[in-house]
């Protein structure tokens, strides 16, 4: 009887050792609508369980949820629950920004203005701060005034054109924008 228990316990230990935690993540995940996947991911984020939040946020972002893309951009930028990757951070932030997420606009302005993982590009920084300031972001307006002083008239004009082009492409019903687009 004791030998049988020891043998069963040994077999159970071997079985458990052969199953890694990674195997759990290889199981197929149920597809959730973007808003539900985002809600699940957000719940995990609130608990600080970044690795658990990741698949839900990715699922929601792949369904064009700008909030989820924004959170992924922050996670990759800070290395929270993932290996820090500035390029992936920018890609997710760009997706969020093109989905109309004002904080993503601000973060992209900061990234290009400080050279965080990219070559400093004040013209590009101006574009994103300009867009963020259109949502009445006071910090973006402050930084925009600083960046404007660092670009030439030609760069300013190009940035203004890009802002107008991007503004036409992004949805405005997702996030509250000021009436019209603040251009100065």
Walkthrough of the structure:
With 184 residues, the chain is mainly alpha-helical. The chain has 2 domains: 31-99, Serine Threonine Protein Phosphatase 5, Tetratricopeptide repeat, CATH 1.25.40; 101-172, no CATH class. 69% of the residues lie in helices and 0% in strands. It has helices at 2-18, 21-25, 34-46, 50-62, 66-78, 86-98, 102-114, 122-133, 138-148, 153-169. Helix 5 (66-78) packs antiparallel against helix 6, helix 6 packs antiparallel against helix 7 (102-114) and helix 8 packs across helix 10. The chain is globular and about 50 Å long. The chain starts with a helix and ends in a 15-residue tail after the last helix.
List keywords for this structure.
69% helix, 184 residues, globular
The largest β sheet comes out as:
none
Give the helices and strands as they follow along the chain: HHHHHHHHHH
Low-confidence stretches: 4-28, 177-184
Average pLDDT taken over every residue: 83
Shape assignment: globular
Q: What Rg do the Cα atoms give?
A: 22 Å
How many discrete domains?
2
Measured by DSSP, the beta-strand proportion falls in under 5%
Number of helices: 10
Distance between the termini: 84 Å
